[in-house]
Amino acid sequence: LPARAHGKMVAKQPADAMDTDSLQQPVKELTEKWKLLPAFLSVQGLVRHHIDSFNHFINVEIKEIVRANEKITSDADPQFYLKYLDIHIGKPDVEENCVASKATTPHECRLRDMTYSAPITVDIEYTRGTQRVVRGDFPIGRMPIMLRSANCILADKTHFQMSQMNECPYDPGGYFVVNGVERVILMQEQLSKNRMIVEEDRKGGLMCQVTSSTHERKSRTNVGTKHGRYYLKHNCFTEDIPIAIVFKGMGLESDQEIVQMIGSADSILSTFAPSLEECHRSQVFTQTQALRYLGGKLKHRRMFFAGGPRKTPVDDARDILATTVLAHVPVEHYNFRVKAMYLALMIRRVIEAQTNREMIDDRDYYGNKRLELAGSLLSLLFEDLFKRFNTELKLVADKTIPKVRATQFDVVKYVRQDLITNGLVSSISTGNWTVKRFKMERIGVTQVLTRLSYISALGMMTRVNSQFEKTRKVSGPRSLQPSQFGMLCPSDTPEGEACGLVKNLALMTHITTDLEEAPIVRLLLNLGVEDVHLLNGEELSDPSVYLVFLNGGIIGVVHNHARLLRTLRLLRRSGHLSEFVSLHSSRVQRCVNISADGGRMCRPYIVVEGGRPLVTAAHLEDLTRGLLFFNDFVRRGLVEFLDVNEENDSYIALRECDIGPETTHLEIEPFTLLGVCAGLIPYPHHNQSPRNTYQCAMGKQAMGTIALNQRNRIDSLLYLLVYPHRPMVKTKTIELIHFEDIPAGQNATVAVMSYSGYDIEDAIVMNRSSIDRGFGRCQVCRHQKCTLKRYANQSHDRVMGPLVDSTTMKPIWKHEPLDTDGIARPGDRIENRQVLVNKWVPSASSVGAQPGQPSPPEHKEVPVAYKGLEPVHVEKVLISSNTEEAFLIKLLLRQTRRPEIGDKFSSRHGQKGVVGLIAQQEDMPFSDQGVCPDLIMNPHGFPSRMTVGKLIELLAGKAGVLNGKFHYGTAFGGSKVQDVGEELIRRGFNYRGKDCLTSGITGEPLSAYIYFGPIYYQKLKHMVMDKVHARARGPRAVLTRQPTEGRSRDGGLRLGEMERDCLIGHGASLLLLERLMLSSDACQVDVCRGCGLLGYSRWCHFCRSSRTMASLRVPYACKLLFQELLSMNIIPRLDLKSHCQ
After folding, report:
1. Distances (CA, A) of 1012 to 130, 770, 959
2. Which of 394, 657, 998, 1015 has the least C-beta neighbours within 10 A?
3. CATH for 195-301+310-327?
4. How do residues 400-423 score in pLDDT, each as one tens digit?
């Protein structure tokens, strides 16, 4: 036994030695950790932030709004009141001709031009006469419902259930259907509320600015410097107020107290002393004197509540200090203690920033930004409408109660539902957000969801709009911020004026919603934070303590801040604190910031402890087998969400091999720093950066599959590819967003060579036989609709049958496609100017005919005709009715197009080009297998553009075709060129991807090896047929008699100022005369040689004779100008000479 024991000991020693070695080895890679991504997206989804925000609004915020305005009373009758007990939002439904409503689906609303909305019902208690009445489920309006939110019919449905509702399971949701149009509320980027921001003002001085925002009011308060003294700026005061007077108005009457709060260091004392002296010079010593001084500087409010007692200036000033200046710091019973501390802290920040420039904040830093989502925008709007709704009810009560009536006053009869309904619908459908109370007027908050392709719809859902004007050429907000890493995509931004102002979210970004503050405050006070109400003010500047802020408000001070942060992080990882609370400390400002407000961007990371990631291979296996979900990882503290500020406090490793002793977190996957559009690009890390940006813009214009229900949709414009392919070289992102199931593009066999000279400047030579086989063939579907209305005088619109030619007994050519009911037959071919719906409208002149004259026709013809270059086919006809009880007829017109010269194609690397030549297959080069390329691309597109990713895509695609498998080109990873080359060698091909081609024209082998293989090409929506435009004679503008402009109006082609200069330079004067007058607006005018004025029909009105008239041709615009000048008492006289002289 002892020997065995001894043996054990011996065996253990080397194991110990091995242990120390294994600690120094790099951490083994978690190859499967990307599986957290699909788990995250299945829980969160790409548009989860919109949906979460809307759910928060419906379940939490709307109830708070009603609770804040719960009681309506009337001045006319003190007994009367109306009280809201609760508010509910139901399921979306539609009322069919005044009978009971039935549930509806988004698809039905799209087809029938209705709004997908649900009733808003309240439980109310009110008095009718002397009795109290309680009513439940009383409707007050309708709320448009966001698709896939909690109240939507599509919430938590399986793929099969979705298909039964004609809805695409891959459709992201997160938008509204209003009057049949899909509209998105874009995310708005703003500076965060209730936070101090120290920055330079225009004159180079420093100021500390706080934008306060509470439910009641929003205000902005500035503390700035002027001539070495400190002033408070606020727009309710007529001028800047010396800061010491504000402190005295807040009840700090002794100068010692003020200085104690700001800080008693000598440097602070010396800079603050002039401000105290100024206060003495103004003869302000007590609180009342200070308030009187402030009252004198108030802007006069025009609103005085009728009948209320007028306040003295002192009371007014006290109220303003309590409620409006720094509105987010609460003041109870006029105890200004906390507000004074906050103000003192603002001054101290400015004083410190004057000596230490590092203390100035950066407004472009993403920790100082918040994204405003649909929920918060809707809650502002609803609150405004609800208040208006209540004031209207109060006015009705005030008017109606005093009148003596037989019936008792019943307030329910006066409730108008349309106020709230129309307010919400019109705001979402126009995008104009106006909230009168906050003087907020924004336009373009919502946009129509672009359904060019699946990617364009997804890209729209992740778009972030900045509040900057696009015209100013400021580089600060446009540049790529380092704090954007992982939160916003670095590539996906438009070129041109909106560059850098419109951004897109990265793949794993989540946006928080508001959390309750009270439990967090309670927790902090229990964890040893000293309450701010118990402090005397001197602790604020004590170097040994740290201040604790929650959402920008002071909670208290703490001695051991590291322990507080450690405890809070433990609580958050164990699930006792919400996972979206962010904790970070600042050494420079000596404070701990805790944020739980909405609109912060955050993303998940794997937690690392002791140099090891907490997520192990066993966890990931459970995840693959479906035993764990993403939320379990968060709840167990293996994965946590960090926002931008907390990222700055952490030490994050990009890969397992980068983990060091002080690492705190590990990135889940590096490619998630890109967004949806940039995630489609294979090998983006081998491309020059602007090329990826170009592809992000073009990926949204690629034709493909829109959704799985595209055959049931009747949209105003649909572009569909007939034979879409899944890409041969794909990325992880493509799988995650299901792009393979609804792709947009085709794998084309490409030869990179120069051919025929029709391929210069990015033009493409295409193979005619490939086009015959269906390469690049697309369908364009447009819709035509008309409504049949009823009018007040009992007349209504009609649809008549086709007119029949009396000799042949067949319909006239215009009406050939019409059925007997006057609507075009499905499947019929329609030429230009043929009629789709033969609609007749009652003529307005049917008042009654004069006796003895034939009665005027009852109806006049207003047909819906087709206008276009190429004929179309009627795909389907929908006959239905909309909410106004009007008949609705929609026709879907289909046109199949094949690629022609001038159509635009692009690969996934920003290499766009137009078709320059369609060559016969016999003339194209072919390889020794007999493979002929679909496209020939000019090699000069590569060197200057440096799109190496495209070269690697061709290699990987070729190997994939030969091996029958898909290769990955994921960013910062993907199949290696060396491995792909070895695969090609095994299949008997050159490892460089080059082939020996034979010329189809001469039949000889080409003298060079040609780079030859498949690349994924997208057909873009820009086609020649939609752009071609020419004109001979045509319509003219009425006023100037010059040709109209624009392709849609069949306009002329303008010879502009620069072209005119060119012709002048050439001396081609007669050509100028012809273009600018004879072909445009030549006009014969009579001019009097005596007075030089324009005459009329050989008669001069001024000279009263026709003796000296001359006739000449001038442009009509010139004649018009002379006449307009005459109307303004300016006389232009024409001085004529005979052309013989």
Report:
1. 90, 16, 12
2. 657
3. 3.90.1110.10
4. 877 777 777 788 888 888 899 999
Query: How confident is the model over 202-240, as pLDDT tens digits?
Result: 887 888 989 888 877 788 888 888 888 888 888 888 888
Q: Where are the alpha helices (DSSP H) in 916-976?
A: 948-963
Give residue 496's pLDDT.
87
Regarding the domain delimited by 510-673, which CATH topology (the fold level of the hierarchy) does it fall under? Hypothetical Protein Ta0175; Chain: A, domain 2 (3.90.1070)
Q: Which residues sit opposite 15 in a β-bridge?
A: none
| CATH number of the structural domain 677-710+724-775+900-1019 | 2.40.270.10
**Per-residue pLDDT tens for 293-345?**
888 888 776 554 444 567 787 888 888 888 888 888 888 888 888 888 888 88
The pair of three-digit structure tokens given for residue 49, joined into one six-digit string: 């932030």
- Those residues whose C-beta lies under 8 Å from the C-beta of residue 298, and which sit 6 or more positions away, are 236, 237, 238, 313, 316, 317, 320
Task: Please state the domain extents for the chain.
Answer: 49-189+371-467, 195-301+310-327, 510-673, 677-710+724-775+900-1019, 779-842+858-897, 1031-1080, 1081-1140
Q: Concatenated DSSP letters for 697-749?
A: HHHTTB-B---TTTTT---SEEEEESS----SEE-HHHHHTTTTTS---EEEE
Predicted pLDDT at 301: 63
Give the containing element (helix H, strand E) for 347.
Answer: helix 337-355
CB 223 within 8 A of CB 230: yes
Angstrom CA distances, 496 to 456, 477, 478, 492, 689, stand at 19, 14, 11, 13, 16
Answer with the residue of higher pLDDT: 97 or 371: 371
What the block records as the tokens of 551 is: 């959402």
Cα separation, 350 vs 206, whole angstroms: 6
Amino acid found at 986: R
Yes or no: say if 162 and 153 are a contact pair by the CB < 8 Å rule: no
Do 49-189+371-467 and 677-710+724-775+900-1019 show the same overall fold?
Answer: no
**Block residue for tokens 């012809």:** 1074
Radius of gyration, alpha carbons of the chain: 37
* Residue 334, number of CB atoms within 10 A of its CB: 11
Q: Which residues pair with 766 in a beta bridge?
A: 918, 935
- Contact call for residues 1073 and 1061 (beta carbons, < 8 A): no
Is it the case that residue 1091 has pLDDT exceeding 50? yes
**Active-site residue among 762, 819, 821, 828?**
762
3-state DSSP assignment of residue 353? helix
What architecture does CATH give domain 1081-1140?
Answer: Alpha-Beta Complex (3.90)
- At the second CATH level, the architecture of 779-842+858-897 is Beta Barrel (2.40)
In the chain, what are the helix, strand and coil shares in percent, each to the nearest 5?
Answer: 30, 25, 45
Q: Which amino acid is at 568?
A: L
pLDDT in the model for residue 968: 93
19 is catalytic: no
Distance CA 30, CA 39 (A): 16
Q: Are strands 187-191 and 463-466 parallel, antiparallel or unpaired?
A: parallel
Residue type, 483: S
- Tokens 């309750």, residue located: 516
Average pLDDT value for residue range 756-766: 92
Closest to 1116 in 3D by CA, of 1072, 1075, 1077, 1070? 1077
Q: Tell me: the pLDDT tens digits for 590-620?
A: 899 999 998 999 999 999 998 889 999 899 9
Q: What is the arithmetic mean of pLDDT over 93-98?
A: 77
Tell me the three state secondary structure of residue 1104. coil
Q: CATH for 49-189+371-467? A: 3.90.1100.10
For the purposes of burial, counting CB atoms within 10 Å of the CB of 163, is it exposed (0-12), middle (13-18) or buried (19 or more)? middle
- Model confidence, pTM: 0.89
Report the pLDDT value the prediction gives residue 12, as an integer from 0 to 100. Answer: 40
- Decide if pLDDT at 706 tops 80: yes
CATH topology of domain 1031-1080: DCoH-like (3.90.1800)
